[in-house]
Amino acid sequence: MSTLPKIAWIGLGIMGSPMSENLIKAGYDVTGFTLEQDKLDRLTAAGGTAAGSIAEAVKDADVVITMVPASPQVEAISYGPEGILENAKQGALIIDMSSITPQTSVDLAKNAAEKGIRVIDAPVSGGEAGAIEAVLSIMVGGEKADFETAKPILEALGKTIVLCGPHGSGQTVKAANQLIVAVNIQACAEAVVFLEKSGVDLTAALDVLNGGLAGSTVLTRKKDNFLNRDFKPGFRIDLHHKDMGIVTDAARNVGAALPVGAVVAQLVASLRAQGDGGLDHSALLRAVERLSGQQV
Asked: pLDDT tens digit string along 118-164?
């Protein structure tokens, strides 16, 4: 019998599926629940167990990991008679890896504590590729003891794992991460259009730029998206739009000015309004092309 904790995984999307599979590869017993049958089939094919409900998935779990799109979904799976808090056993640890508002994380931890359930917020950065390769950056908020309990599990999912402070801190750092990523993608997209309109060999230009101070993980990860106009979602514009709302709202609450971030948030919103919300966030290139008079 394995001495590893039993894990329930709620939410098997673009990120959740490969992450749960990495835990199975690491020897964990993973029972999953999501709304799409094909994702449940994928989990069982990888060696996991499919549950018919949240309650069934979490009832025997030592650790419950959640990876859903936004705060409303976290609240929906956590609360109510069929939710995690009513069905997880006392002493269980919830690791919420969704990207949500810091306040939602603080509230979840408070409500869970009343039922003897522990919570850490542990959002991630690295996109689909990082999830597949188990090299995610994981920013954690919560109690140090709970972080130490979760750390071996998180080490099967990511490479950089840092406790950032109390409950909600992981979400605050993730919001800052999404601000940096969006601004970086926008800058890269503007550079691509400028280079192409100038008649420069784009492949060569991006290679040399990425070897200097202008280089970044964003450019490394998204270079082929730009070159091939391949916007198959690794991280959808819809989700980045949600995240830019989180960071602009949180910044307003603490009195931090985000002048460039506010402009990029509007560009993300405009791209979504033009029907590109389901595309990868590298599709910010399409917005720059439209502004530059190109047909896309």
From this structure: 999 999 999 899 999 999 999 999 999 999 999 999 999 999 999 99
Inter-CA distances, 185 with 98, 152, 219, 221, 259, Å: 22, 32, 8, 10, 16
Residue 202 has which token pair? 């784009």
Per the annotation, the verdict on 174 as an active-site residue is yes
Residue type, 71: S
**Angle (CA) 190 191 194, round 5°:** 85
Choosing from 174, 222, 223, 242, which is the catalytic residue?
174
Please tell me whether the overall predicted TM-score, pTM, comes out greater than 0.85 for this model.
Answer: yes
Let me know: does 193 contact 205? Beta carbons within 8 Å.
no
Phi, psi of 163 (to 5 degrees): -80, 120
Q: How many beta carbons lie within 10 A of that of residue 4, not counting itself?
A: 15
Residues sharing a CB contact under 8 Å with residue 207, sequence separation 6 or more, in sequence order: none
User: Beta-carbon neighbour count of residue 208 at 10 Å?
Assistant: 12
Q: How many CB atoms lie within 10 A of CB 257?
A: 9
- pLDDT of 218-238, one tens digit each? 999 999 999 999 999 989 999
